[in-house]
């Protein structure tokens, strides 16, 4: 990845963070493989503006993942521990 | 501004998404090699403590866990979420399995005294808070009861347990986990606190819940009503 040093650092951080976040993603290896594919696909991008846009997209995916994990967990807890209140609705 | 100190107890449990299996010898559930994480309700308690600190209502958040060495991972997660320091009450794995609520309560009580804690936040148990604020040196807690909301004022020190709807816990991201490694983690033994961990309860057997019996299909509404009358539902 040939680009300004600071952007390179940001991209690497983003990749590491997404990798860490992706450990809890269901469907086994799916997320990890897709993450690698997508990053490799964009490895020759040079334009700093385009790179920043891609970084923002990566950060958006991170937010989406956090929301997904939260919803799954919330729903599971609600079903397991609050099922008696559901029945009255 | 506020000099309040909060203690949050966090428990390392089998991850909520894992399918739990009973051991063949029926002495417990399979835990070896199984993914563990912080109890989701403990996460809510940690989040609330950290939010109180961010609102400058609490000065310091201490995360505590009782159990074997792996508990430190759970404490580390609490630190990554914003707790200031951790205390690991070391209990060997075999003994930890038999640790009951009473023993843990004694540990927490001794720690609360030792660390001069004003507020203890815990995961869900019984009645729980859906909103917590500090007002004039007292704790203002809102909780859901049958028929609505109840607002309570509590003198400090106080113990509060967290409801599912209290907040949305933040995810402990990798950079925060890394930063958490620099935070202080104290390791002590229950004996150091003068707490006796012997349990008067023993586990007799652990079994799977009964299989769900198959449903019954009926042809007409009359049949349905007849069936319901039969089993005494109407």
Automatic annotation (TrEMBL), chain A:
A Pfam family hit: Complex1_LYR
Residue ranges of every copy of the Complex 1 LYR protein domain listed in the record: 10-62
Gene Ontology annotations for the cellular component aspect, listed alphabetically: mitochondrion
CDD domains for the chain: Complex1_LYR_ETFRF1_LYRM5
Similarity comment text for this entry: Belongs to the complex I LYR family.
An example Gene Ontology biological process: negative regulation of oxidative phosphorylation
Coiled-coil annotated residue ranges, if any: none
Name of this protein: Electron transfer flavoprotein regulatory factor 1
Single Gene Ontology MF annotation: enzyme inhibitor activity
Automatic annotation (TrEMBL), chain B:
Gene3D superfamilies: HUPs
CDD domains linked to this entry: ETF_beta
Domain named Electron transfer flavoprotein alpha/beta-subunit N-terminal: residues: 26-197
PROSITE patterns named in the record: ETF_BETA
Domain of life, per lineage: Eukaryota
Localization annotation: Mitochondrion matrix
Record-level GO BP terms: amino acid catabolic process; fatty acid beta-oxidation using acyl-CoA dehydrogenase
Cellular-component GO terms for this entry: mitochondrial matrix
SUPFAM superfamilies noted in UniProt: Adenine nucleotide alpha hydrolases-like
Molecular function per GO: electron transfer activity
Keywords, alphabetical: Electron transport, Mitochondrion, Transport
Homology family: Belongs to the ETF beta-subunit/FixA family.
Subunit and interaction comment: Heterodimer of an alpha and a beta subunit. Heterodimer composed of ETFA and ETFB. Identified in a complex that contains ETFA, ETFB and ETFRF1. Interacts with ACADM.
Purpose: Heterodimeric electron transfer flavoprotein that accepts electrons from several mitochondrial dehydrogenases, including acyl-CoA dehydrogenases, glutaryl-CoA and sarcosine dehydrogenase. It transfers the electrons to the main mitochondrial respiratory chain via ETF-ubiquinone oxidoreductase. Required for normal mitochondrial fatty acid oxidation and normal amino acid metabolism. ETFB binds an AMP molecule that probably has a purely structural role. The electron transfer flavoprotein serves as a specific electron acceptor for several dehydrogenases, including five acyl-CoA dehydrogenases, glutaryl-CoA and sarcosine dehydrogenase. It transfers the electrons to the main mitochondrial respiratory chain via ETF-ubiquinone oxidoreductase (ETF dehydrogenase).
Protein name: Electron transfer flavoprotein subunit beta
Organism lineage string: Eukaryota, Metazoa, Chordata, Craniata, Vertebrata
